[in-house]
# Entry
Amino acid sequence: MAKGVTPKSEDYARWYTDVVTKAELADYGPVKGTMVIRPYGYSVWTSVQEAFDRRFKETGHVNAYFPLFIPKSFLAREAEHVEGFAKECAVVTHHRLMANPDGGLAVDPNSALEEEVIVRPTSETVIWAMYKKWIQSYRDLPLLINQWANVVRWEMRTRLFLRTTEFLWQEGHTAHATLEEAEEETRTILEIYREVVEDVLAVPVIVGRKTEVEKFAGADHTYCIEAMMGDRRALQAGTSHNLGQNFAKAFDVTFQTEDNRLEHVYATSWGVSTRLIGALVMVHGDDKGLRLPPAVAPYEVVVVPIGKSEDEIAQAADYLKSDIKTLEKMNRRIHVDDRLQVSPGFKFNEWEMKGAPVRLEVGARDIEAGQAVAVRRDTGEKLEVSKENIVSEVNRLLDEIQLLLYQQSKDFQRANTHTVKNYSDFKEIMSSTGGFIRCGWDGNPETEEAIKDETNATIRCIPFDEHPDGLKCVYSAKPAKYEVIFAKAY
# Structure
């Protein structure tokens, strides 16, 4: 166990914070509720961002940027939408400070804004105000725009990456001529989310639809991917919303059809955020720190040359120089840790904490034996690799680690997903081990709310592979309308 890291089994929440801060992913910002994403953490986010962005562009989407500030009147146009965010909005009322005669600064009372503006909690309203200007005819559709941005949802309780006042995300907003096209868009994006989270982040998810209670404010319906964290709680990893014509009607966004009729467009919105980095920590981390999938690790391989002098360290590093160059040409991310002021043991512990998938150690004895020592972060296994096989072996190990991390977390999800038929078993599981519970639900929002009030568990989704036939509601014992996934969630 790494020095200063609380064991997962002792205090999961504290373990999580220890890993995030000691692995130098993020730190607390000076304003309560904010965080600073450190370079190592931002590198992880960049890899995640690139994986999504490439797939968005392959499916015809383009990136743009919209203002941080939104007129308050815009939010008022879509009542259900604003109700969902009103309590989290940061409001700007003045635009200037002034010096106090006795020192310090104060808000200039003469600088009040004619209309207060909201620091964006999400961008639907400002984007749809612009779409009204840009969309006139069926020839302007579909309009497929994505934005990489920051948003603010006021939060005083900080949990790095999971609950902060400001966070980074992408938000896609599209306009279509028909409901069918909008539905196809939401499903296309949902599949992109599933693919990246499972294949790149190595985090298994359950794909499904949100209930009316849990759906996005202002949406006709919401699709989602739900992941199980290491403490068996659920994390909503991404959502895709079919907004129908709600926002188009609120902002009067119409288009002329091919047969010269005037109709409101159909809309979608969808997003993932930096909470995915929190998911990486909680799904893959252990008592030594991070275990990063190679696909998003800032460094897939860390080379630690060992020696008692600067010359010996340089000689050890030079021994692997050609192999490093070959791996880099294969787009592998390699880092050589040739620092003189810290011991090899310190380096080993640091890179274990930071989750580097493979560590290559090489010293005088290894050079003499014509080998290097490869250490896997996922299993801790040490392998003596001959010099001529280093490139092929490193590639094999990285591919294996990516697959194994996914399989381990998939096995964990399966082992902690329970099928229950009665409410007493439901409550027992939720109050003890937790996890996902798959069961029947009668479709009544009052049943959903009652279970939430009594157990703190919510319906995470109605999975696409549901089989409600023959099931009874776990709470009311009435015939089940849906088979759902319940869990306690972040």
The first strand starts at residue 26 and ends at 28.
